[in-house]
Amino acid sequence: MAFSQATLDFLMENRINDSRLWFNEHKAEYTEYVRDPMRGFVEEISPFLAKVDPMIICDPVRSVSRIWRDARYSKTLFRENLWCTFSRDRHAFSLPGYFFEITPFGFSYGCGCYDVGADFIGEYRRLILAGSPLFAEAVEAVRKAGCPLMDTRYKRTRHPDAPEWQREWLDQRSVCVLTESGDLGALFSDDLPKKIGGKFKKLKPFYDFLLLVAQTVM
Asked: Which domain holds residue 192?
C-alpha cells in the first residue's frame, strides 16, 4: 500500500490532539494509513540497499521510528513525522546511513552521518585535502543524484587557502546530503520506493567514502 492523503491527515490530527486516548481510538487508521505503508516502503526499498551494502539493516519493524516521543525529554506525546533509517548498526550514529521521512507537508531523504566526533571529522578532512579518489567519486555521485549537501558550515572558513568548492565540504560540522520535497504526487505514487531506491544507489560512492572514514577511526 502506498502513502496517501490519509497518511498525512493522520499525522497532523494525531499531533494536534496529542492524546493517548485519541490515538488508541484511531489506532486502526494509524496501522492502515501510516504504519503499514511505511513498512511496505522499507520492504520494497530493501533490494536497492542490499546492492549498496549487504550489511545494511533494512527491517520493516526495526528500521521505522516510533510515532510517540520519549516522555522523559518532551512535553508532547506524539510526533507529526515518521521516518526510517538504514545503516549497519542503527545505534552507532557515527556510521553512515540512509534515511527517508514523511511529514504532513511532504517527504525528505538522504544519506550521511547523524553524529560525528572530532576523530571522524579530522580523518574526513585529511582525506579531502590529500586528494582521495574516493572523495572525488563521492562529490560526483552527489552531483549526479541531485542531492544537495546540508549546510552545517562554520560561519568562518577554517581552510581559506582551499578552492571554494572544496571549502564547502571541508567546513561542514557534520556530513549529510538531504533532499526535501512537497511533491505529494510523487509521495503517493506506487513507484516511490523505486525512485528513492535509485537515488540511494546513485549515492553509493558518497556512502562508501563516509564508511571508509568511520571504519578508519573506529
From this structure: 5-217
| Buried-exposed string 59-80: b where 16+ CB fall within 10 A, e elsewhere | ebeebbeebeeeeeeeeebbbb
Determine contact, residues 127/135, Cβ cutoff 8 Å.
yes
E strands along the chain, which residues? 82-87, 97-103, 106-112, 176-181
> Measuring CA to CA, which residue among 204, 196, 206, 155 is closest to residue 176?
206
Is the CB of residue 151 less than 8 Å from the CB of residue 171? no
Q: What is the pLDDT of residues 92-113, one digit of tens each?
A: 667 999 999 999 999 999 999 9
CA atoms within 13 A on the CB side of 198: 7
Q: What is the DSSP string of 166-189?
A: HHHHHTBSS-EEEEEE--HHHHTS
The mean pLDDT of the chain is: 94
User: Which pLDDT belongs to residue 76?
Assistant: 87
Percentage of the residues of the chain whose pLDDT score is greater than 70: 98
* CATH code of 79's domain: 3.30.930
What is the reported pTM?
0.94
Domain count, the chain: 1
